[in-house]
Amino acid sequence: MGLNAVPPGQIATIVTTLDMVARPRPRPLPASPFRLVRWPQPQPNRYRALFRRVGERWLWFSRLAMADAALIATLHDPAVEVYAVTDRQGIEIGLLELDFRQPDACTLAYVGLVPELAGRGHGGWLMAQALGLAWRKGIRRVWVHTCTLDHPAALPFYLRSGFRAVSRTVETFADPRLVGLLPREAAPQIPLLDPAAPAT
């Protein structure tokens, strides 16, 4: 057993890949005050604003790093579906992105609610919605990926939802708070190690 140093300014996380190879048995949809609204061909600014609200706490940054043209090419692909979760007032408080670009499969590319709703039982409703949309004709496998930067309950939640863990990888990347993609105060639970900061 050994420790591997993470380069200055970088973050390391363990990514767990999970899959589901059979449609779950039908059951009643959990009650919720929220709605799922399809966003056909969302524009980058609107999409990124919701992406930030949902994921900034967990250092979601990949969509923030993409150029507009690349993001539009992804979001406007006919095999990619984007949905917003809205409350009774129509305020967008969650994100679901389904990717059908892999033959016979669907990836839950992004699924989440704003951090203020964590632990209130709404995740079960959102997952039921996600799986209902993912399992359609011709789909044989549904994928999802989570990492150790996500909410601590994320991995157990996916397992309870019927996914099985199939692989783990270690990912390192430049801290998005140091390269200007996210504010320095984002994700306060993850220490910010700035190599340019003076030693104390």
Helical content class? 10-25%
Derived structural class: alpha+beta
Under CATH, the homologous superfamily reads Gcn5-related N-acetyltransferase (GNAT)
Strand order in the largest sheet: 2-3-4-5-6-1-7
Q: In one word, what is the shape?
A: globular
Tell me the total number of β-strands: 7
Provide the β-strand percentage band: 25-35%
* Sheet having the most strands: 7 strands, mixed
Mean pLDDT over all positions: 94
Rg result: 18 Å
What distance separates the N and C termini?
31 Å
Count, helices: 5
- Write down the secondary-structure element order: EEHHHEEEHEHE
Topology:
Blueprint: E1 10-20, E2 35-38, H1 44-55, H2 62-65, H3 68-75, E3 80-86, E4 92-99, E5 105-113, H4 122-134, E6 141-147, H5 154-160, E7 164-174
Parallel strand pairs: 5-6
Antiparallel strand pairs: 1-6, 1-7, 2-3, 3-4, 4-5
Explain what this protein looks like in three dimensions:
With 200 residues, the chain is α+β, with helices and mostly antiparallel strands. It has one domain: Aminopeptidase (3-Layer(aba) Sandwich). Helix content is 22%, strand content 28%. Strands 2-3-4-5-6-1-7 form a seven-stranded mixed β-sheet, sandwiched between helices. Strand 5 (105-113), helix 4 and strand 6 (141-147) form a beta-alpha-beta unit. The longest helix is centred in the middle third of the chain and has 13 residues, at 122-134.
